[in-house]
Write the C-alpha cells for this entry.
Amino acid sequence: MNKIFFKNVVLLIVAVFIISCDDDVPVTNTNALNPDIFFESLNQVEGAVNASYNQLQTLYQRNGYIFPDAFSDEMISGGDPNFAPFFNFELNPTLGGIALYWTACYNGIGACNFVISNEERMMNNAPTSNFTTADVNDAVGQALFLRGLYYYLLVKRFGGVPIKNDFTTALNDAPRSTEDEIYEFIIQDLTRSSQITFSKGATETGRATNGAAYSLLGKVYLHRGMYVEAQDAFSNVVDYSLLPLELYEDNFNEGGEHNDESIFEVGYNGEFGTEAERWAQTGVGTSELTFHAQEYTGWGNLQPSPKLMEEFEEDDPRKEVALVDVGQAYGPDGIFTFPGPGLIEALSWQKFSQLYEAETVQENSGINARVLRYADVVLMQAEVELNLGNSTGAINFLNQIRERLELPLYGSAEMDERGFPVDTPNGIFNAIVHERFVELCGEQVRFDDLVRWNLDGSELSILPNADFDNPSAAIPRGYDPNIHRLMPIPQNEIDSNTQINGEDQNFGY
C-alpha cells in the first residue's frame, strides 16, 4: 500500500465522521487531532470507533456487493462495460474497482488499528474521564469486529494479504501472509470481540455487537470446515429472531432497518455532499448513499438470472419480494405497474430497490446494506449440523425458515414430491443449497457458498442465458476455479510494497 494510505487514515481520524452507526447521530469534526492527548472523553472514544465504520460505506456503495454477486450464477449482465470483466472473469491487476476495494479495506483496518492500539491509553484515562472500562472494552471490541470483517472481505477476494495490526508501522513494508494466517488473525480478533463487545440492546442501534462477532466468527469457522467451533459460535447468537411472513420485506427496505432479524448493517441515509463526492467512493466525503437500488433495478446493471427465477417454488412468497417482472403490480396497494418511469423493461430485482417508497427507483438509495442476517445464521447452523452427522438437527433448522414462510416442511410428503427428500445426507445438502439460493439471493453469499461446496466449477462454467422462454440455454462463461476463486492483487500494491513483487501475484494473473 502506498503512502496515501496513511494520509487517508489520518484524515479519517481527524474528520471523525460519525456516519455509520445510528442515522440520528450527528457528524462531529475535530481539528488538529493529537493522538497523544486523544481518548480523554467518551465523545473522542466514540468518534474514533465511528471512523472505523467509514470505509464499509465506501465498500457497499458499489463494489462490495457487485463483485461477489456478479461472480455468481444469480446474475446476468445488463451490459454495463464497467462490470463486464467481473461477469466474464476477465480480471486483471490494473482494474480500478479492484484497487479501490483493496484500499478501502486497508483504510478501514487503519482506522480500527488507531482504536485498538490505544486500548492501554483509554484504560489509563478511564478513572478520570467520563467513560468506563466497559466503554473501553466495547470500543476495542467494535474495532476488533470491524478489523475482522475487513480482513474477511479481503481474504475471500484475494486470499493471503499483508497483515497490518498496528497504527504506526508502514504497510508498504509488510509481506503477504498466507490465507491460513489471515484466517487465524480474523479468528483471534472476532473471538476477543465476542467476549468484550456489548450485546444487542445494550448499545446504540447500528453498532457492532457480540452477536455480530459470534455470527461472523461462526461463518469463518464454517468456511474453514471447523464445524464444532462453528456450532459453538452460532449457539451464542441470541436476541435475534426470524421476522414473521407479514414483515419479511422489512429485511430489505428502509423502514425495516435494524429489525429483530438484522445482526449487522452498513448504514446509509441517501444524502451526499457534492456530485463529485457522490461518485468519489473515498470514504472521506459526506456521501451516505449507496447505488445498490439503481444498480440492481433502475440501471439494471445486475439482473436476476433465469436460473434463479426457476429455483423458486411457485408458492414461495420470497419470489415476489426478491424479483419484479414486467407487468407486475408494485408499490403501496399495488398502484404502480413495473417497469414504470425510469426502470428497465426486464425481470429485475426488488430487494433493496425502494420500489415501495416511490414510483421510480431512487438513484441515491438510503437503504442499509444488510451484511449479517439471522436467516443466514439459521441456514449455516443447518449446514454445520449436517456436517456433524446430526440430520435431525439440520432439518429442524431448515424448517425454521420454512415455518416463517408458511411453506411445506422438509420431511413431508409434499416436499418429497417437489424433489426435496431429506432421508439422506445428500438430500439434506440439496435442501440447504436450495434454501440458501432463494433466501439469500442478491445478498453476496452465493459465490462463496459455491466455492465452499466445491460446486463453483460446475455451476459457474456457463453463463445463464437471458432467454426466459428457454432458461436452460446457456453459453460458456470462462470460469476456472483454479484462477477465479480469487481476484488479482492490485498492481499498485505490487509496485509500491517493498515486500511484494510479481511472484506474489495470485495464480493466473
In short: Strands lie at 75-77, 262-266, 302-304, 323-324, 329-330, 336-337, 348-349, 369-373, 462-464, 474-476. Residues 261 and 319 are 19 Å apart (CA to CA).
